[in-house]
Amino acid sequence: QLVAYEVKRMRAEEGNKQKILRHIKELAEKLYKNENPYPAVTMHKVQKPTEGCHLRLHQKPFPRLDEGTVQWIIDQATAKLQTAPPAVKAEKKCMVPSGPPIAAILERNGNALANSARRLEVVRNCISYVFENKMLEAKKLFPAVLRAMKGRAARHCLTQELNLHVQQNRAVLDHQQFDFVIRMMNCCLQDCTAMDEHGIAAALLPLVTAFCR
To answer: Which InterPro entries match (predicted)?
Structure first.
C-alpha cells in the first residue's frame, strides 16, 4: 500500500523532517493496531499495606461483603463477555494496486547507486596504481578500498580487476605491490558472507596461487 499510494507524499516530504516524523508515527500506529487489534486489559493494582500499619490505632474493620451485590457484579461481567466480539480478528482481503513502476523508486536511490559507482572506481584506480608502481597514490586510496570491501559489488570488482592483471602476465610483483594485493584479497575474504562462498571466494582461489614475488 505504501508503494502504491504514498510515493508522491514521500517525495513531497523529503526535505521536511517534522513531516517525515509525523508520517512515520502514523505508520507505526497503523502497524501497532494491526498487530494488537484489541486494547490490553488494564489490571487493577491492589496496594500493599505499609510497614507497621498493624500497630496503628483506629483501624477500621473490613466491611462485610453483601452476597447479592457480589453475585450481581459477577452476572454483569458474564453478560458482557457473552456479547463481546470474537477474539480472532476477521481477515479482510483487499486488492492493492501495483503503484508506480520500480524505476520511480530507483530514482530516489540514485545517490546510493552513484556512491556505489564511486567506490568501484576507487577500487579500480587503486589496483591500477599498484600495478603501475605508483605506490604513493595507491597508499592514499588504500583505506577507502578496504572500507569498500564491505560491499558485495566492490568485492566482485576486485576479483575481476585482479583477474585482468593476471591475464596480462603481470602476476610477478615486487614486495610492496605483493603486500598491497595480498592485503586487499585478505580484507575481501574477511568481509565475504556465506553467499559469496561459491562466487567471490571461489574466484579468488586461482588468483591467490597466481600472484608471486
So the answer is: SBF1/SBF2
Q: Which three cell numbers stand for residue 37?
A: 487489534
Cβ neighbours for 20, distance < 8 A, ≥ 6 positions apart: 13, 14
Q: pLDDT tens digit string along 191-204?
A: 877 777 778 888 88
**Separation of alpha carbons 94 and 148, rounded Å:** 43
Which candidate, 123, 139, 134, places its Cα nearest to that of 188? 123
CB 189 within 8 A of CB 204: yes
pLDDT category of residue 26 using cuts at 50, 70 and 90? confident
Which one, of 136, 207, 203, lies nearest residue 165 by Cα?
207
Q: Where are the domains of the chain?
A: 1-35, 103-210
